[in-house]
Write a structure and sequence with these properties.
This protein is α+β, with helices and mostly antiparallel strands and 393 residues long. Helix content is 37%, strand content 16%. The strands form three sheets. Strands 2-1-3-4-5-6 form a six-stranded antiparallel β-sheet. Strands 10-11-13-12 form a four-stranded antiparallel β-sheet, with no helix packed on it. The longest helix is centred in the last third of the chain and has 25 residues. 20% of the residues are buried.
Length: 393
């Protein structure tokens, strides 16, 4: 893996668009003091997610935008695109060439892209973690960095060694596991309120958590039962058949802490477990973590692709990315109205099977449910057909 080229426009001294290509071997940039040599390394650090103005030799982040001269107007935006050769598949993404883009406006807003698909700063950081090219990695050694490494600052040396050892991703995820964001905290508090009301009124709670393993990146699942460890009236439903695509083995889980209720369940469902299903589920949970993480990343990409595709080709479609699962709803009513029979309409005119909302809920007309657990090529073709029909309505 190596950097192929960098494009800079409006970044520091690069008022006009500039592209520098890096060929295999060593590329040296030579020039007098003040010619902007260090601005190139700053651009690489910045596009890879640097958030400290100090590390970019500035006082505040807005200073990376070209501020103008006596003869030239200032720019309203700074943009850097770093193109990386990924033919060796070191980066966990299905492209031989990866273009990472960062833009910043004078308003303070920032945008990030991976191969022209808008993403979060977090997505870029996770993409390059443990590769050595992160802002704390050992591939970017700037002014003063060597002094930090050989000094008595153990933190500086530790960052370098952890990046080289490939454990930054593990440590980051471990830390995030215990630090939910504000949205996560609010969701937990809401769960507590609902659970408390139900339990105080003597109700049993059947908590459907069968899609809990298929979270979007950066989110954390909180089992309802974990919020009420003393209660025996919460039954948790899970399904490795959903998570690991082994639905044909007919296996799911019910976690029933109430001994009497569990005995009653066993009495009415006494056919027993299928040994093959039990063995498959055990193996999936024990050895399928890496596969599951890759699946989650792929689903994230599919949802992001769909959101981008609808915004460009059918902007009136109401579509949002769910926090978990491989299913999502789309509101097509701006094109179809509140009509029923959308399953038949798209089946006949687009050759795509969608589930109409009226099959699931009252007043669901105009909505369809879509399955995103498919190869990207299938998704691209399906969305193309769906939008082609919508544009004719």
């Amino acid at each position: 893996m190596y950097f192929k080229k960098i494009y800079m426009h409006g970044f520091k001294s690069f008022a006009d668009p500039v592209t520098i290509e890096f060929h295999k071997g060593i590329t040296c940039i030579v020039g007098p003091n003040g010619s902007g040599k260090s601005n190139i390394s700053d651009a690489i650090r910045w596009v890879l997610g640097e958030q400290s103005p100090k590390m970019l030799r500035g006082g505040k982040m807005e200073e990376v935008i070209f501020s103008g001269t006596a003869s030239r107007k200032s720019r309203g935006m700074a943009e850097v695109i770093l193109t990386i050769d990924n033919s060796s598949n070191i980066l966990p993404i299905e492209y031989n060439e990866v273009a990472i883009t960062r833009r910043m406006y004078r308003s303070g807003e920032s945008e990030y892209y991976i191969n022209n698909n808008q993403c979060r700063l977090r997505d870029i950081r996770e993409l390059i973690m443990d590769t050595g090219i992160g802002v704390d990695g050992y591939s970017l050694i700037g002014q003063g960095k060597i002094a930090d490494i050989v000094s008595n600052k153990t933190e500086s040396r530790r960052e370098i060694f952890e990046e080289a050892a490939g454990i930054v991703m593990y440590r980051t995820r471990k830390a995030e596991e215990y630090a939910p964001d504000e949205k996560g905290i609010e969701a937990v508090e809401e769960l507590k309120k609902v659970g408390t009301i139900c339990l105080e009124n003597g109700l049993y709670i059947l908590s459907d958590e069968i899609h809990c393993d298929l979270l979007r990146s950066g989110l954390r699942h909180t089992p309802l039962a974990s919020l009420f460890p003393e209660s025996h009236r919460i039954v948790t439903c899970m399904a490795p058949s959903k998570t690991f695509n082994i639905a044909g083995l007919h296996f799911s889980e019910l976690l029933i802490p109430d001994i009497a209720l569990r005995a009653e369940w066993n009495k009415t469902h006494s056919e027993g477990e299928n040994p093959l299903s039990l063995t498959a589920a055990t193996a999936a949970y024990a050895d399928g973590y890496d596969w599951l993480m890759e699946l989650r990343r792929y689903l994230d990409g599919n949802f992001a692709y769909a959101a981008d595709y609808f915004s460009k080709h059918a902007p009136k479609v109401g579509f949002s990315v769910p926090e978990a699962t491989y299913l999502s709803w789309a509101d097509l009513s701006a094109y179809t109205g509140k009509q029923t029979g959308l399953t038949r309409l798209f089946g006949e005119q687009a050759g795509v099977v969608l589930q109409g909302g009226e099959q699931f809920i009252h007043n669901g007309e105009g909505f369809v449910r879509m399955n995103f657990a498919c190869p990207r090529a299938v998704l691209e073709e399906g969305l193309s057909r769906i939008c082609a029909v919508l544009q004719k309505l």
